[in-house]
Amino acid sequence: MVSWSVLGTLSPVPALERPDLLGDPVAAALKDLGPRAEEIGVAEIDPDLADTAAFCEAYGSPLAFAANCVVVAGKRAGETRYAACVVLATTRADVNGVVKRRLDVRKASFAPMDDAVALTGMAYGGIAPIGLPDGWPLWIAPGVAAADAVVIGSGTRDGKLAVPGALLASLPGAEVVEDLAR
């Protein structure tokens, strides 16, 4: 059994046992994982504590194992290009360097909240790398991929997931990117 201790004082259960704590795209993607979905735990949280620092402090989850999934965007020839980046909360995604080059755009930035929510079908502050739109690149920092488990959003502000880093790195469209995080 995978350790879900990164969720601190919470009592996680297998994620598919609590679909009410999952965004619809997350629940669908977890079902597609088959037996591997059993490696992912979910715990209910106070939605007012969904932001990483507040969550970690309130529930005793180590900040070193919290990961943030950020949606980035850039334009090229009138086309907006999106990607998701997963970095440890103790780092920041190199949006103006690595991300910009990989998206092949002149300027990259965090996608506007309304766009990120509409395109992913997930709640802001709970966007997960599981269940992203088809065709989106998913770039994962090496520290995330190497972790036994990290805490990520569940697609809602009501839950958090504990997910093995290796499982995230094996998701469709995922690629571990050196120097993604600084």
Please tell me about this protein's structure:
With 182 residues, the protein is of the alpha+beta class. It is 24% helix and 24% strand. The protein has six helices and nine strands. It has a five-stranded mixed β-sheet. The protein has a four-stranded antiparallel β-sheet with strand order 1-2-8-7. The relative contact order is 0.23.
Describe the structure in brief.
The protein has 182 residues and is of the alpha+beta class. Helix content is 24%, strand content 24%.
Task: Give the helices and strands, then pairings.
Elements lengths: L12 E2 L9 H9 L8 E4 L7 H8 L7 E10 L2 E10 L6 H9 L4 E3 L2 H8 L17 E3 L1 H5 L3 E4 L5 E5 L1 H5 L4 E3 L6
Parallel strand pairs: 4-6, 6-9
Antiparallel strand pairs: 1-2, 2-8, 3-4, 3-5, 7-8
Number of H/I helices:
6
Element-level helix/strand string: EHEHEEHEHEHEEHE
Approximate shape = globular
Query: Which range does the strand content fall in?
Result: 15-25%
- What fold name stands as the CATH topology? YbaK protein
Strand order across the largest sheet: 5-3-4-6-9
* Total strand segments: 9
Q: Largest sheet, if any?
A: 5 strands, mixed
Please report the first level of CATH classification, the CATH class: Alpha Beta
Give the class from helix and strand content and strand pairing.
alpha+beta
Looking at CATH, the homologous superfamily is YbaK/aminoacyl-tRNA synthetase-associated domain
Helix content: 10-25%
| Poorly predicted regions | none
Sum up the structure in keywords.
single chain, 182 residues, alpha+beta, YbaK protein, five-stranded mixed β-sheet, 6 helices
